[in-house]
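2024-03-11 09:14:02 DEBUG pipeline.ingest accepted 1 chain
2024-03-11 09:14:02 DEBUG pipeline.ingest length=458
2024-03-11 09:14:03 DEBUG pipeline.predict start
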Amino acid sequence: MTSARPRNPAGREAAPAPSGSGPRLGLRANLAQFALLVAVNALVGGMLGQERVVLPLLADQVFGLSASTAGLTYIVAFGATKAVTNFFAGTLSDRYGRKPVLVAGWLIALPVPLLLIWAPTWGWVIAANVLLGLNQGLTWSTTVIMKIDLVGPQRRGLAMGFNEAAGYVALAATAMTTGALADHAGLRPEPFLLGIACAALGLGLSTLAVRETRDHARAEAARHPAPTDPRHRENPSTAEVARITSVRDRSLSAAAQAGLVNNLNDALAWGVFPLLFAAHGLPAVEIGVLSALYPAVWGFGQLVTGWWSDRVGRKHLITAGMLLQAGAIGLVAAGTTVPVWTVAQVLLGVGTALVYPTLLAVVGDVAHPAWRARAVGVYRLWRDGGFAVGALLAGVLADAYGPTTAVWAVAGLTAASGLVVAVRMDETLRRPAHPSRAVPASAPSPPSASAPPASPAP
């Protein structure tokens, strides 16, 4: 005889499954592993943050790369590698499991800070950023997938908010710290010692403490309703997943282009903003503070915006965020003083916080659990391809017309992307009370007043 399980009064999170019925979904049921994965993703962000302030200055002051395009080659190398790795990370995590992919990503990270410390030529820096792209594609993609696996359908926005907040708050803290270290002790080696610590801790935690989550996705898939859209078969090929995510599904394709443009403007903030600030005479420590402010607001803001998107929906937050980003980037171009740039960086962080976790939640909403990891990989292929596109575009425009023109051009592209979301994307958040809502793997459908209770699943 089975007894009814208590339900959350808000109806937002499934109760644990009975003992022996398989993996339990929900944030509360998986809190320890979820918190551990948040910590691991903070270390992933720290690996990226070690470069945000120091590498643009290294390119200019140590390697003499005065041309913007040449200086931004490391972002192109990073972005292109990470984008392709994202795609394979989803496929590999479906085939071999999430944890092996995560551990492999950390093994690849180990030589990155050492290459940056010892680099005698710019080619070493490019090689380090190829490895960093592999690391970020494998580790960040996998922590995203694992958190979606654990929390089930009711808390996707909140889960992505915590995931992205951890990564970008750590990125901001590392960027600010490395800026201060560079100002005090020089550009090498001290700033990159933080990267060594992040890689060692990330590998240790992922190997010894993180548990596999693929069975959670399988448990959700077993209870997931059959797709109503004939284009969304339960077991499409990887090529079909790529077509659905990139073109055929309105919401997924709108999310893919918005993700690309979001990281296009992040490449601008990474590679051009520090040079723009330095051209106005700011020292490395002030550049570090400004460079850290944007990802810090972005990171902390996602703790609210991910949860908020679970309440009010995805589409309008994404549209508003893209338009706010565009205005903030324009303010950077128009500004010439630290107070103006400070306001611009805060607004850019708020806009990105509205967009970043919400786009991932859209992918989780639409994609079937059986191919969701691959859909996340395709989305992140497009999104992180924006690093390469943004670095090339910003570099070419900055060389030809100056950095201010490059900043204005990216502001215009970001505004256009927000309008595409407003026109093309459907609202993907399904309300708990809606009869077509997917039933979490750990909770049965409540009986209605006019029908007998459903028989338990075999």
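2024-03-11 09:14:41 DEBUG pipeline.report The mean pLDDT is 82.
2024-03-11 09:14:41 DEBUG pipeline.predict end
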